[in-house]
Write a structure and sequence with these properties.
Oligomer: heterodimer
Strand content of chain A: 15-25%
Number of domains of chain A: 2
CATH superfamily of chain B: Glutaconate Coenzyme A-transferase
CATH class of chain B: Alpha Beta
Low-confidence stretches of chain B: none
Structural class of chain B: alpha/beta
Number of strands of chain B: 12
Strand order of the largest sheet of chain B: 3-8-10-11-12
Shape of chain A: globular
Helix content of chain B: 25-40%
Largest sheet of chain B: 5 strands, mixed
Number of helices of chain B: 7
Largest sheet of chain A: 9 strands, mixed
CATH topology of the largest domain in chain A: Glutaconate Coenzyme A-transferase
Order of helices and strands of chain A: HEHEHEHEHEHEEEEHEEEHH
Radius of gyration of chain B: 17 Å
Number of helices of chain A: 9
Number of strands of chain A: 12
Low-confidence stretches of chain A: none
Distance between the termini of chain B: 20 Å
CATH topology of chain B: Glutaconate Coenzyme A-transferase
Radius of gyration of chain A: 19 Å
């Protein structure tokens, strides 16, 4: 389970798989994502929990993605996600637009093993109009009429996440990035890159156990120092503004995107997999 | 006492937040965020502020679901939304321009709007570009509607629309904006010329009150440092901290 290379980690994802991705602020597994691109995996279905940024944009730009479900794809202060925008406008990416709480709620339904979950809001929006898989029912427990949207559960084939710490037992400490726990609970398999692997058992540590994904949910762990670069990881390192600015500029064209992957900026410390 | 356009907008929004017990703000909203912090300072501790993803102003620790769960329970009194397009019925569009899905212009997506706009009692729409491009007759895509039909659970919705030119209130029953005040240095003609939708207005539209000196002192003093925590670039630009 431990000490796999990033290449071995992502080689488990077959063509056509669905992959849940975390929001940018939770520290996306960018090094693993680049390994996935190098591996040449195609026709992926991305599920942003509930938004994505550079991670989805890299996969889209590299031609790995067929469909995506998301409430937002953006490079935040660095501007629009260029590959995402180009692919949607060209009709090359089939996008299921939705809203953040719908993705999180549907993932929670997946976590609970129930077929659907109701959610307030959405009624009267064009999001709902374009989502035949979302249905409006009458709240069966209300006295009067009370229409409410029900969302089908999301059970991703994979959750691909990054975290500060893993241990030799296969537990993964995620800090405050709580949605990573929900992702691991709901997904069939969870692949993790970590900054560091420690010998102690994280589940035996009273302080860290509540923010630790138990090994039961983890399929494999590989080490990737600065594995989110150029995105920052809370408590570990900051976002590399220069590299992201370069990406936002270069990835506007396919040539620039390819060049970024091939000869673009590299992290100060090389991404090491062992 | 002189003031910047940012300080005017901060004071305008802070007035709209009077009496709110918990204000939540997105991480890329420095003007609403500063207004929330100003209101907190004026409230003598009665108002709580959550700035998403900030290190010190973020009291949430249950992942992305928590904000939405709080909103659904009525634990958030005010929130801010914007739109690439906002129309006269209060509908907002965060998706793009043209025919969906292959739109002429594509934005990031609807984020939390399709829940928060329905459930947070005071949603303040803020857009610092007031043009016919942004203030349209009808949005090309409804990320979240301004009003809902009777019988739809909707405790929340638009409370006001604040732009770089003026302040509108929103009448839920009529599903229409009403021009309340025009910012100093701007005219009714300018507002009419730059607004793509029809709106109500009194015979004489008052001027937006200028920021009170004590509020400006508060902003430029202790508050600038607080604002710099979640919004360092903004605080550096506006107050040099």
């Amino acid at each position: 389970m431990i000490a796999e290379t990033l290449q071995e980690l992502v080689a488990q994802i077959p063509d056509g798989a669905s992959i849940a991705l975390p929001p940018t602020r939770s520290g996306p597994a960018i090094a693993a994502t680049r390994a996935l691109i190098e591996h040449g995996t195609k026709n992926l279905h991305l599920i942003a929990i509930p938004t994505s940024g550079l991670q989805a944009d890299l996969l889209i730009g590299a031609g790995c993605v067929a469909t995506m479900e998301s409430a937002g794809v953006t490079l935040d202060e660095f501007g629009q996600a260029p590959s995402f925008v180009n692919a949607v406008k060209a009709g090359a990416l089939q996008l299921k637009d939705t809203t953040c709480p719908a993705l999180v709620s549907a993932l929670q339904a997946g976590e609970k093993g129930i077929p659907f979950i109701p959610m307030r809001g959405l009624i009267g929006s064009d999001l709902l109009k374009h989502r035949p898989d979302y249905q409006v029912i009458d709240n069966p427990l209300a006295d009067g009429a009370d229409p409410i949207v029900v969302l089908p559960a999301i059970v991703p084939d994979f959750a691909l996440i990054h975290a500060p710490l893993g241990d030799r037992h296969g537990n993964v400490w995620i800090g405050k990035a709580r949605e990573l726990m929900t992702m691991a609970h709901a997904a069939k398999r969870t692949l993790v890159s970590v900054e560091e692997v420690v010998d102690e058992n994280l589940m035996a540590d009273e302080l860290r156990a509540p923010a630790t994904i138990p090994a039961h949910y983890i399929t494999a762990i590989a080490r990737a120092t600065r594995g989110c670069w150029p995105i920052g990881l809370q408590g570990c390192y900051d976002t590399d503004a220069e590299a992201l600015t370069a990406y936002a500029r270069m990835a506007r064209t396919q040539e620039g995107f390819d060049q970024f992957l091939k000869d673009g900026p590299r992290p100060a410390q090389p991404v090491a997999a062992e | 006492m002189g003031y910047s356009s940012e300080e005017l907008l901060i004071c305008v929004i802070a007035r709209l937040l009077e009496g709110v017990d918990h204000i939540a703000v997105g991480v890329s909203s420095p003007i609403p965020g500063s207004a929330a912090l100003l209101q907190r300072a004026l409230s003598d501790g009665a108002t709580r502020v959550t700035v998403l993803n900030s290190r010190h102003l973020q009291a949430l620790n249950d992942g992305v679901t928590e904000l939405f769960d709080m909103a659904a329970q009525g634990r958030i009194g005010a929130f801010f939304l914007s739109g690439g397009q906002i129309d006269g019925s209060g509908n907002i569009n965060l998706v793009g321009v043209g025919d969906y899905p292959q739109m002429k212009v594509r934005w990031s997506g609807s984020f939390g709007s399709a829940l928060l706009y329905y459930l947070v009692p005071k949603v303040i729409l803020f857009r610092d570009e007031h043009t016919r491009r942004t203030m349209v007759e009808k949005v090309d895509f409804i990320s979240a509607p301004g009003t809902s039909e009777e019988g739809i659970h909707r405790p929340g919705g638009p409370h006001a629309l604040v732009t770089n030119l003026c302040v509108f209130s929103f009448d839920k029953a009529k599903a229409r904006f009403c021009l309340e005040t025009i910012h100093p240095g701007h005219t009714l003609e300018e507002v009419l010329d730059n607004t793509g939708f029809e709106f109500d207005r009194p015979d004489t539209v008052p001027q937006t009150p200028v920021p009170e000196p004590e509020r400006l002192n508060l902003l430029r003093g202790s508050l600038a440092q607080h604002v710099a925590d979640p919004y360092p670039k903004f605080a550096a630009r506006v107050w040099g901290v």
